[in-house]
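Notes, p. 3: input format for complexes.
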Amino acid sequence: MQKTIFITGATSGIGKACAKAFARDNHRLILTGRRLERLEIEADNLTKQFGVEVFTLNFDVRDRDAVQNAIESLPNNWKNIDILINNAGLAAGSDPIQDGNIDDWEAMIDTNVKGLLYVSKSIFPLLLKSECPHIVNIGSIAGKEVYSKGNVYCATKFAVDALTRGMRIDMLAHGIKVSQIAPGAVETEFSEVRFKGDIVAAANVYKGFFPLQAEDVANAVFWVTGLPAHVNINDLVIMPIAQASPGYIHK
Ligand code: NDP
Ligand code: 8X3
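Output follows (251 residues plus NDP):
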């Protein structure tokens, strides 16, 4: 059955890989992100490669009005959403908490927690029309265990973990599945963003072991959302074989 998939943060990394995984299976996509040019190129590529319909929405998940307006602006034939993938997120900085940068804290809290809430709130009514509604939140191993200098990023991902559980309870009566995928280290633009463009520091994160690739996480999302109607994966932790927990990577 063809579904409509709404993906936040589809301009890079895990979100982009999810878009490809669902396009390959002929689903309709609503792709979102701040970088308009990337969105347009990606939509074009997916349409050409897989012949699927792609709609793009260009907004910052931290901007509550922009989120609401963008989702309200969807044409009627795009307002039946089957799967919401709450993926947009970031880590900003890597400092002991006493040296933390308050702008970094706000960026993480506003994006990873408040942004996820704003998007979910606007999408809930659109999921109710689906026969197989599903919300997938991209959490992290950082939402299961804290690590040195992870402080606020970890707190935001612990919040995603809690929100996933809370949503699951509240969505129960509406038949909406709610799942969390919690990956360990994935080689994307994540560390480049965390280290504010320092590509050497970012490359060091993934040096000496084989990290997860964005496609590995996308495959997990695709599998979780393709299970029979009566089956839900509540929580899936996915790690590279070399990583036992955030602080233990065998290099
Ligand atoms: P990337 O930096 O490659 O991708 C992040 C995506 O989020 C981009 O598409 C970006 O789009 C979007 N995004 C960030 N901030 C905003 C915003 N304010 N408004 C709208 N979109 C935004 O990183 P990943 O693919 O690795 O990260 C995706 C998710 O996976 C995040 O939630 C991250 O916390 C989580 N994660 C990542 C892990 C890793 O090791 N990489 C491990 C565990 C979880 P744009 O800049 O165009 O807006
Ligand atoms: C990203 C994984 O371990 O860098 O969520 O926090 S980690």
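The chain has one domain: 4-249.
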